[in-house]
């Protein structure tokens, strides 16, 4: 890797780990981290049996120092990095990464990204990633289950005398199933029947949360989570605390108050199947929930009311979903929902509120087969300094989609022009981005014709008016009734005609 600006000017590789031999497994998480030299980046990849580092430009694997704790605690079952938290971007980490990329003053003194790895034995290892190297662990965390284990407890001599079936049951009960950072100082983890909250400044366990039981009183398994600031109702009020939303394998969501540990709300999401992902949009106060790879539901983050539910095919042009995240990009300021398919595809939608308070969820672009060999995508992340999407797949490989905003430019511009025609304020720069300035996607990926054409990019719809089946009126959102203007628009959409007040309606979402 070159130093300074020469390194920064080199393109990122598009595929990592596809040719690696040996132990395999699904990618638990992947991220771009600052490298050893100013302006350089490395790709971090976590799989059940190993952690790998790759040069971001050559895609060559970089040998890691042997860390005893890694070998003692494999297999890994979950991971998270402090480069992505529940406000879509982490300001401190993003600033440090940008400083490192520029080779600017203070780059070395900035906070290092943190990597948390959950293990099958119940341990959580927290590492620092310094100059592209995994260092530590700085914390080895564990929430005791001594009261629930046979005499001898965790690590006791009694455990060694247990039969294989009992040991296996204990291992499953301890296994970490989900991890989530909230900034650099707070880490949440989940295992069967409970979630934990650690303060990483001290390494101390602050609180445990008991999850609601599932059918037949079976313990629930947390599968996804996000932390959301609580807001007061009075005008001008700000956040008063943090709520932890936990998606479970029972198809329900549990909401806890972090400060008190109390269960605030528990509700069924979109059926009895497991929750896969939760994606929070702070600016719009909504949470998107992905259930069973087949349904997406939208929830009000303050009232917990359901805004709408959609089948996966309406969100992704047909494929079942395997991962979903919310991200925030700048210049132009956009809130984006990214949905990855089991066929290796990626769908990008813009989420915003209309002046009348309704929610827009607009298709910006669709990319086919970004993963190696079309494997299901198992992890998603956005790297703001390079404007890149990092995708991990089920084959223990990772891919990078570079220059995201350039590839979305024409779609955003066309929609901005349509918004201006309706008298809505623009949210993009005055200088348009055109197809001529777009960088082609990585090999094997291409925007779909419907998604990349200017006409299709301009098609919009509110999230509470999904596409109808032929001859049927679109369903209304839960708990609402259409006004006269809405009835006219819905009737036009049902006939496949142009909505008089909004222009064309995209018949897909």
Gist of the model:
Helices cover 15% and strands 36% of the residues. By secondary structure, it is an alpha+beta fold. The strands form seven sheets. The chain has a four-stranded antiparallel β-sheet, with no helix packed on it.
What's the alpha carbon Rg, rounded to whole Å? 23 Å
Strand order of the largest sheet: 1-28-27-26
Question: Helix fraction?
Answer: 10-25%
Q: Summarize the main sheet.
A: 4 strands, antiparallel
Total number of strands:
28
Number of helical runs? 9
Low-confidence stretches: 1-7, 87-97, 99-108, 146-160, 425-509
Rounded average pLDDT: 75
Q: How much of the polypeptide forms β-strand, as a percent range?
A: 35-45%
What gross morphology would you assign? globular
In whole angstroms, the N-to-C terminal distance is 44 Å
Structural class: alpha+beta
Explain how this protein is built.
With 509 residues, the protein is of the alpha+beta class. It has 9 helices and 28 strands.
Question: Which features does this protein show?
Answer:
single chain, four-stranded antiparallel β-sheet, 28 strands, 9 helices, 509 residues, disordered C terminus, alpha+beta, disordered N terminus
């Amino acid at each position: 890797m070159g130093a300074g600006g020469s390194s920064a000017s080199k393109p990122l590789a598009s595929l990592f780990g596809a040719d690696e031999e040996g132990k395999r497994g699904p990618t638990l998480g992947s991220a771009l981290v600052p490298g050893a030299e100013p302006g350089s980046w490395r790709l971090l990849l976590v799989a059940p049996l190993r952690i790998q580092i790759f040069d971001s430009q050559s895609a060559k694997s970089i040998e890691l120092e042997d860390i005893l704790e890694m070998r003692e605690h494999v297999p890994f079952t979950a991971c998270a990095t402090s480069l992505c938290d529940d406000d879509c971007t982490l300001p401190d980490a993003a600033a440090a990464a940008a400083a490192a990329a520029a080779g600017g003053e203070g780059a070395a003194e900035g906070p290092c990204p943190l990597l948390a790895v959950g293990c099958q034995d119940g341990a959580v290892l927290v590492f620092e990633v310094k100059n592209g190297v995994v260092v530590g662990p700085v914390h080895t965390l564990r929430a005791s289950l001594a009261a629930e284990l046979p005499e001898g407890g965790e690590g006791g001599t009694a455990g060694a005398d247990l039969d294989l079936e009992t040991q296996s049951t204990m291992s499953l009960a301890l296994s970490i199933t989900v991890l989530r950072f909230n900034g650099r100082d707070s880490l949440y983890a989940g295992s069967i029947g409970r979630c934990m909250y650690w303060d990483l400044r001290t390494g101390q366990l602050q609180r445990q949360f008991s999850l609601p039981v599932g059918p037949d009183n079976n313990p629930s398994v947390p599968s996804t989570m996000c932390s959301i600031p609580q807001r007061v109702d009075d005008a001008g009020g700000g956040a008063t605390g943090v709520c932890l939303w936990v998606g479970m394998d029972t198809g329900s969501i549990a909401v806890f108050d972090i400060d008190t540990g109390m269960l605030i709300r528990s509700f069924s999401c979109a059926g009895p199947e497991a929750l896969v992902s939760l994606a929070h949009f702070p600016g719009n106060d909504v949470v998107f929930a992905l259930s069973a790879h087949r349904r997406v539901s939208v929830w009000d983050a303050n009232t917990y009311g359901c805004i709408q539910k959609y089948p996966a095919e309406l969100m992704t042009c047909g494929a079942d979903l395997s991962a979903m995240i919310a991200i925030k990009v700048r210049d132009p300021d956009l809130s984006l929902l990214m949905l990855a398919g089991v066929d290796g595809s990626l769908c990008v939608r813009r989420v915003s509120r209309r002046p009348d308070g309704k929610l827009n969820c607009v298709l910006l672009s669709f990319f086919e087969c970004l993963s190696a060999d079309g494997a299901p995508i198992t992890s998603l992340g956005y790297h703001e300094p390079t404007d890149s999407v990092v995708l991990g797949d089920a084959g223990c490989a990772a891919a990078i989609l570079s220059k995201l905003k350039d590839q979305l430019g024409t779609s955003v511009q066309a929609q901005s022009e349509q918004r201006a025609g309706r008298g809505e304020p623009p949210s993009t720069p005055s200088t348009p981005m055109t197809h001529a300035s777009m960088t082609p996607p990585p090999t094997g990926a291409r925007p779909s014709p419907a998604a990349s054409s200017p006409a299709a990019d301009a098609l919009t719809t509110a999230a509470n008016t999904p596409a109808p089946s032929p001859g049927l009126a679109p369903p209304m959102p839960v708990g609402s009734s259409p006004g006269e203007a809405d009835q006219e628009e819905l009737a036009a959409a049902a006939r496949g005609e142009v909505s008089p007040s909004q222009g064309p309606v995209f018949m897909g979402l």
